[in-house]
């Protein structure tokens, strides 16, 4: 056991923490799909899934078995390699985005000094997965859905990144741990309310969630860029969407609501409770708002959200320079 040095133990402990955190994120994403259906049923005055297991508790297991045994079909004229890679890229990029989120002072996958830049990089990489899926399917509806999704995502990612610069300016770092520590006495939601507002809107849009689910508008595009996917390939897109919701909710908590800070309870519990609240807000938004037209979605981003983000950035810069 000469190889079991203190340095090796530190590496093994870090790897173990990373595996546990990422497995919890995937599990939360999977269970959120079940919770969403139950909550939508409650909001809409109807029953949710209640046939498999006690009160529908095994519905998620039934869905997983169904998806696993479905035929892994590839269209005849599709580009097989890119068609297969697209869902893997989407799932991996969204999962790795969570790697920079500190769950507690000692639990995180990676304590990067450029944590926020890493998140923006992974968010940009996910756009390629959508384009690959739409183009490689050799289906006009898939291609139109992919073009919509990429145009919408790139548009909203412009002020997704800009809305975070006010937080970075106040904390003086891109490191997520430093940003959380800077909120020990005052959460960023107060001085950076407009930054929070635009980041939350952009986060919903980047996840392609209602009301920004234009790439999957059933009445127009027959489910968008993943219409040709089935089996586990579709499952990677499906679970990846919910992992994106978990990641955006965790980032909102980390950047604007003090992360793990809170009285009485352990840090991890505070982080989990705050994140669960914003995950429920995603579901409530889906149940409450109608789907606008695509041109209205794009105009809202460029004509309202982007100017609001720039004004917030200018005001933050003025305050930081004045205090300096």
TrEMBL record:
Keywords in alphabetical order: Cell membrane, Membrane, NAD, Quinone, Translocase, Transmembrane, Transmembrane helix, Ubiquinone
Subcellular localization: Cell membrane; Membrane
Gene Ontology annotations for the cellular component aspect, listed alphabetically: plasma membrane
Catalyzed reactions per annotation: a quinone + NADH + 5 H(+)(in) = a quinol + NAD(+) + 4 H(+)(out)
Coiled-coil parts of chain: none
Membrane topology summary: Multi-pass membrane protein
Catalytic EC class: translocase
Pfam families given in the database record: NADHdh (PF00146)
EC nos: 7.1.1.-
MF annotations from Gene Ontology: NADH dehydrogenase activity; oxidoreductase activity, acting on NAD(P)H, quinone or similar compound as acceptor; quinone binding
Keyword Transcription regulation: no
UniProt keyword Translocase present: yes
A biological-process GO annotation: aerobic respiration
Chain segments annotated as transmembrane: 12-32, 81-102, 114-135, 156-180, 186-207, 234-258, 264-285, 297-322
The protein's assembly and partners: NDH-1 is composed of 13 different subunits. Subunits NuoA, H, J, K, L, M, N constitute the membrane sector of the complex.
Annotated family: Belongs to the complex I subunit 1 family.
Protein task: NDH-1 shuttles electrons from NADH, via FMN and iron-sulfur (Fe-S) centers, to quinones in the respiratory chain. The immediate electron acceptor for the enzyme in this species is believed to be ubiquinone. Couples the redox reaction to proton translocation (for every two electrons transferred, four hydrogen ions are translocated across the cytoplasmic membrane), and thus conserves the redox energy in a proton gradient. This subunit may bind ubiquinone.
Record-given protein name: NADH-quinone oxidoreductase subunit H
Organism: Serratia sp. (strain ATCC 39006)
Gene from which the chain derives: nuoH
């Amino acid at each position: 056991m000469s190889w079991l040095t203190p340095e090796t133990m530190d590496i093994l402990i870090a790897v173990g923490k990373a595996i546990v955190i990422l497995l919890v994120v995937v599990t939360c994403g999977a269970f959120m799909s079940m919770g969403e259906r139950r909550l939508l049923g409650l909001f809409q005055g109807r029953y949710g899934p209640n046939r498999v297991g006690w009160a529908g508790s095994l519905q998620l297991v039934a869905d997983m078995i169904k998806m696993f045994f479905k035929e892994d079909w590839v269209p005849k004229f599709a580009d097989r390699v890119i068609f297969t890679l697209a869902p893997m890229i989407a799932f991996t990029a969204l999962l790795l985005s969570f790697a920079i989120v500190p769950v507690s002072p000692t639990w995180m996958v990676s304590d990067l000094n450029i944590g926020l830049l890493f998140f923006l990089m992974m968010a940009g990489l996910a756009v390629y997965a959508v384009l690959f899926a739409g183009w490689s399917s050799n289906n006009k509806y898939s291609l139109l859905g992919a073009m919509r999704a990429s145009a919408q995502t790139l548009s909203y990612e412009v002020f997704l990144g800009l809305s975070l610069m006010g937080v970075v300016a106040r904390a003086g770092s891109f490191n997520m741990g430093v940003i959380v520590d800077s909120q020990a006495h005052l959460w960023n939601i107060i001085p950076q309310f407009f930054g929070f507002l635009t980041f939350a809107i952009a986060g919903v849009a980047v996840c392609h969630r209602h009301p920004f689910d234009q790439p999957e508008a059933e009445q127009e595009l027959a489910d968008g860029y993943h219409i040709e996917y089935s089996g586990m390939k579709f499952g990677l897109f499906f679970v990846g969407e919910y992992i994106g919701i978990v990641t955006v909710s965790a980032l909102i908590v980390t950047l604007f609501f003090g992360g793990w800070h809170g009285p009485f309870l352990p840090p991890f519990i505070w982080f989990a409770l705050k994140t669960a609240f914003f995950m429920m807000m995603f579901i409530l938004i889906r149940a409450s708002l109608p789907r606008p037209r695509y041109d209205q979605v794009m105009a809202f981003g460029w004509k309202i959200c982007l100017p609001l983000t720039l004004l917030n950035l200018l005001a933050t810069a003025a305050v930081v320079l004045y205090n300096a």
